Each structure stands twice: as structure tokens, then as C-alpha cells.
Amino acid sequence: MTHTPTTPTTTNPLPDCWQALKDVLDNGIDRVILFGPPGTGKTYAGMNFGNVAQGSFRITCTEDMTNLNVDGAFMPTSDGKAFRWYEGSALKAWKSGGRLCVDEIDKAGSDVFATLLNFLDSPESASWEHPERGEIYRPKNGFSAVMTTNIEDMSDLPEALADRFPVRIRINQPHPMALKRLSRDLREVAVNYADAGSERISLRTFMAFDSMRRALGDEKAANIVFGYRASGIMDALRVNAVAK
Predict the structure, then answer these.
(1) pTM of structure
(2) Where are the beta strands (DSSP E) in 118-197?
């Protein structure tokens, strides 16, 4: 199921995309994909929203990463005299019954991708054997996984991956909690630019502007942070100030 966001209403103070995420996490869904434009807080949500009392563990996928980050690997001890097994984030999440947040799994190499598919399989099917002890591990009760991606078309996901994540929510607005970190006059502008296609500006960029303008003033800070779009941002701020 792919959730398409609508606009917030007076009866629902959360933007619809964030309300949808709250609803699915509150009602037992333990595999969710968060997709959409970058800089809206998808990873933060994956690490912190819902039941994460047993901890959150993050993997950021790249083409060059190895399974050290996923299940683990033998590494030399600090004295260099022996090797010991260091657990990866997925195995830690399994053992604790915590949350695994996987960023940009579509960028993982084939070997890592295959290992991640195993750790993201249904609890009834998933298992992992320790390469030294032969001990079999399975996900502890409570284990959940949130995947984040900037892919917009969910049909571009590999079929095996899509099957493991039946709920997909497009995050198109910053979360209200994150917006509160901005000065009040910037919040509406930041929301409007969060999903503005090629003109999109991330929440992180607005935070940088908000910090710099305190010392440099609006105009100079805008020119440094927003570049050629500075005049448009300043116009939007002036319009909002008049409207209020």
C-alpha cells in the first residue's frame, strides 16, 4: 500500500503524511518505507518514531559498503593479537528487538543487498547463522524496520524488497516538531519549498539561514545560503509578514 499525502486540516494538526506514519506505527505495522524529497526528516522519524524503547540502529547504504555494517565481521582486537566478531547494526537490532533504519537501500551493492533482504524478511522466515559458533539467530519480538529512500516511483524498487515493505508513505513536509526549530516567520516558507520539485530547499538549508541571519542579517545570509534563489525567499518572507 502506497500512501499519497493530502493537506492537513483543522481537525488533524499533523500533515497527513506524518499522521499516516503515526497511524501505521501505532497499529502494529513493523515494515515501512518512507520516500520522497530529501531533507524532510525521514531518517529522524525512522530512528525515533513509534516504539524504539529497545534502541535504534542505522545503516546508510553505499555501493562500497560491506556486510560489516549489516551482520558484522571478524576484526583485529586492539592489541592486534587476535580477531573477534564485531556485530553489525542489523544483527544488533535483531538481538535487542529494536528498530533498524536503512537509508538508501537501493544504493547497496548486490552482496550487501542480499544480506539485508534476509534481515528484512518476515520473522517466520528470517534467520542468520553465526559463522564461528554456528548459533542460529532470529529477530526478537518487537523488531521493526523503516527504510528511507529518495526514490519517487515505488515501481522502481526491486520486487523482493517491495514485497518486504507493504506500507509506503511519501513524506512531503517537514514534521511540525522539526519546524519548531526554525524561527516562526520561516516555517511556512520552509513547508512550501520542501516539495517544490527542482526548486526544493531542504529544512537543513533553512536552519543554516536562520542561524546565519542572526549575525549577518536577512539579505546577506540569504545570498550566501540560497544563492540565485535568495530574492525569491526574501519575497516570500515579506509576503508572509504582510499577510500576518
Answers:
(1) 0.85
(2) 128-129, 136-137, 144-149, 167-170
